[in-house]
Design brief:
alpha+beta, Helix Hairpins, HSP40/DNAj peptide-binding domain, four-stranded mixed beta sheet, about 25% helix, about 25% strand, binds zinc ion
Length: about 375
Amino acid sequence: MSKRDYYDVLGVSKTATDDELKSSYRKLAKKYHPDVNKEPDAEEKFKEVTEAYNVLTDKQKRAAYDRFGHAGMSGAGANPFEGFSGMGGFSDIFEQFFGGMNGATQQQQRRVQKGADLKTTLVLTFEEAVFGVEKEVTVSRYDTCGRCKGNRSEPGTETAKCEYCKGSGEIRRTQNSIFGQFVNVTSCDRCRGEGRIVVTPCKECRGEGRVRVTKPLMVKIPAGIDANRQIRITGEGEAGPRGGVPGNLYVSIVVKEHAVFQRRENDILLDLPLTYWQAALGDRVEVPTVDGPVELEIKPGSQNGETIKLREKGVPFLQGNGRGDQLVNLKVVVPKKLTEEQRRLLTELSKTMPREKIGKTSAEKDHDDKGFFSRIKDALGSN
Ligand SMILES: [Zn+2]
Ligand SMILES: [Zn+2]
């Protein structure tokens, strides 16, 4: 499923101010909040507008989004909106705008600890970074305990109500201030806000709710990824202790050097060595590209350092619109050793050629001689 543009989601222009974003988000969040809207896709829509709002009101994230779109936010399949998998984050955001909610939302408010983020590195070949790839990474992490499903009690046993908070998970203290009376609500630290106490801890995880596992994970690398980028895979970090939301996995991308290609943003650079006579007489040569070899025409009189562009043979743009080019840099190579016969022929040949003088080379002079008007004609005529 392709993601909708964040600006479209919020129905604002690309130049929307924070106030405009806020006002639009307020309207949409009110409309789609799952406590209010019972349509089946309301929650999805609510998440979508919230995600868009969170990114666009964060200066750095917005800049990244404007430049790279969704790809700039995260890697393939990753949800850029951290903390959303937990209901905690859900109601927090709502609270921020509309003040306290009651009923269902209030109960979901109990904070559970989020699992730690994990980091790993993935080494790609040059071609894998160009075309994208699906690769396995192995991470050692805490995962939800399979025996107790993360609820920490030995299966078949019951938890007991926390006596300290009477099972509510919260400690309420009424306070008086010059603004009037208000209730200060904090999470119960006996039961850590859960309202229940484990009586018989699970044997597998000793009541932790999570166990250490080494797990292979498939990571999808989008075509055109650059070295030193990081991909976030939401929810693939450590499982949170006591059934908390999992952290994220961050995959750093390292790209191996290629034997002949170099990359400059979305262009691929290739040095093509040519002999003096190939450059002088012209030739057709086969050059490698990431799509396989192509035939390239070397024009007679080609100069060292000239570049030939192979359109659309570069690296795909992360956004999926087209590709960069391959730039073939001509390098005229002078032979270091000659046979007797070659030396004789070359000496013969040299007698027919004028020497180059300091200043402009003969090729540059030819270029100048074409004259101002004919160059304008050239520029207008071709390309
Ligand atoms: Zn367990
Ligand atoms: Zn308690």
